[in-house]
UniProtKB/TrEMBL annotation:
Coiled coil: none annotated. Keywords: FAD, Flavoprotein, Oxidoreductase, Redox-active center. This is FAD-dependent oxidoreductase. The chain holds residues 3 to 445 of 837 of the full protein. Its cofactor is FAD. It comes from Paenibacillus medicaginis. It comes from the Bacteria.
Length: 443
């Protein structure tokens, strides 16, 4: 059996490793447009900020290691420019070899999503960056290491915008973050996001809300960013983080069904509408596990799981992907915010009847040193089924949201939250854990 994989990072590399485990004989070829495979996208901001010092740590697998360990033919700097599901072939453009065709028995697509670059005047300036991969990271890192680079403007207050604002600040720059909407981090409801926003401000990040970039100009080593309000900002570097769009232009005329925003449509076995073509990761449309709507959730956990499931199905195992619930977490300096399931805005938009409670328990027993409060918001339906949760605090936020994410996965209720028996000793929690407390408050 010959399996081709397009994309060599989260979804693609997971699919490749799983395929090899399931089938020792299969010929597996993985195409990656960039020079690197299997790098730690999620670690890139922290390398720029300096918490990760060693660049080589970002390279989780090299093509050579992947070949040696899994016997996978990894072809970097090889872009798949079109696919032909009718004749079961793809066309590849390689830097040295030029253009050639490769046939397949099964094809797994994991091309990911690319940063949106709005069509604004002056956007071509070499000082305006986006962040997706190692080459982007190298450019940003070398720019901020220049002595003259003192300030940065970050455009967009999503996960990558906030992580980059923090890390550019950590790298010693004066940072201004511009957000078109009224709140940062739309995975959270406004009152929870505002706590994270305050932490950013307390740590010296200047925040500008409800304003939009109109264009840029480059002058004498600086970029001038003009906003709709008339405000003008000057910085040596601009980071654009206004969201991502599926990297699926090469599939336009392939007969593959795409959604309205270019996402590949797949069923629960990650199969596309074309025989033996599978797709996974940021490029696909998924079902929202909580509310059943179609959505797209560009996160690493879902991409890895889907890669594995696609490989299972190539090998006839028939496993299924049951949807994404958007469990996510962000560090804003000392503070952590985490969320899972639907937020209140989404439930309101979809007219789903729900209740909301807030609790503010301590991260661990208050008599043991170092306890800090956690603000926990819980959303549940009329029958008590848990629909979503968000938490912000300095410590222990991750495990509380992970507990609730697990309960949501098993379609559990607020009573289930009260019944969870969780690890407790004073340095870690309380006999009534914050998750139990949320359940009690909700019952
Ligand atoms: P990718 O990992 O993007 O891989 C797709 C690969 O396909 C790319 O390398 C691309 O070059 C290649 N490719 C595309 N088209 C072609 C083609 N035609 N031919 C050949 N190759 C092609 N998620 C989290 O859950 N937590 C985090 O903390 C987090 N932090 C992030 C931080 C940053 C800076 C970024 C950029 C992303 C972060 N993410 C995070 C998101 C996460 O990285 C993605 O959800 C995940 O990588 C998606 O996997 P994928 O396989 O779909 O796409």
């Amino acid at each position: 059996k010959k399996v081709l994989i397009v994309g060599g990072v989260a979804g693609g590399a997971s699919a490749a490793a799983r395929l090899r485990r399931l089938d020792e004989e299969a010929e597996i070829i993985m195409f990656e447009r960039d020079p690197y495979i299997s790098f730690a996208n999620c670690g890139l901001p922290y390398y720029i900020g300096g918490s990760i010092q060693d660049r080589s740590k970002l390279l989780v697998q090299t093509p050579e290691a992947m070949n040696k360990r899994f016997n996978i033919d990894v072809r970097t700097q090889s872009e798949v420019v079109s696919i032909d599901p009718f004749n079961k072939k793809v066309r590849v453009q390689n830097l040295e070899l030029g253009s050639y065709e490769e046939s397949y028995d099964a094809l797994i697509l994991s091309p990911g999503a690319k940063p949106i670059r709005p069509d604004l005047p002056g956007i071509q300036s070499s000082r305006i960056h986006t962040l997706r991969n190692i080459p982007d990271t190298d450019k940003i890192k070398s720019r901020i290491q220049e002595e003259a680079t003192r300030s940065a403007v970050v455009i967009g207050g999503g996960f990558i915008g906030v992580e980059m604002a923090e890390n550019l600040r950590e790298a010693g720059l004066a940072v201004t973050l511009i957000q078109a909407g009224q709140q940062l981090l739309t995975a959270f409801d406004a009152e929870m996001a505002s706590v994270l926003a305050k932490e950013l401000e307390d740590q010296g990040v200047r925040l500008i809300f409800s304003d939009k970039v109109q264009g840029f100009e480059e002058t004498a080593g600086q970029v001038i960013t003009r906003l709709a309000s008339g405000m003008v900002l000057q910085s040596e570097i601009v980071l654009l983080a206004t969201g991502v769009t599926p990297d699926t232009a090469f599939l336009q005329d392939s007969g593959l069904q795409l959604g309205p925003r270019g996402h590949i449509l797949v069923n629960e076995r990650m199969q596309t509408n074309q025989q033996d073509v599978y797709a996974v990761g940021d490029a696909v449309q998924v079902v929202d596990f909580v509310n059943g709507q179609t959505t797209a959730i560009p996160l690493a956990g879902p991409a890895n799981k889907q890669g594995r499931i696609a490989a299972d199905n190539v090998c006839g195992l028939g496993t299924t992907y049951k949807g994404s619930q958007g469990t996510s977490i962000i560090k804003a300096f000392g503070l952590t915010g985490a969320a899972t399931g639907s937020n209140e805005k989404t439930l309101q938009r979809l007219n789903i009847a729900h209740h909301v409670i807030y609790v503010h328990p301590s991260s661990h027993a208050s008599y043991y040193p170092g306890a800090t409060p956690i603000s926990l918001k819980l959303l549940f339906d009329q029958q008590g089924m848990v629909l979503g949760a968000q938490a912000v605090g300095y410590d222990g936020v991750d495990k509380r949201i992970d507990d609730i994410a697990t309960v949501i996965r098993f379609r559990g209720s607020v009573t289930d939250l009260t019944e969870l028996e969780l690890a407790y000793a004073p340095p870690y929690s309380s006999a009534k854990d914050p998750v139990n407390m949320a359940g009690y408050a909700a019952e």
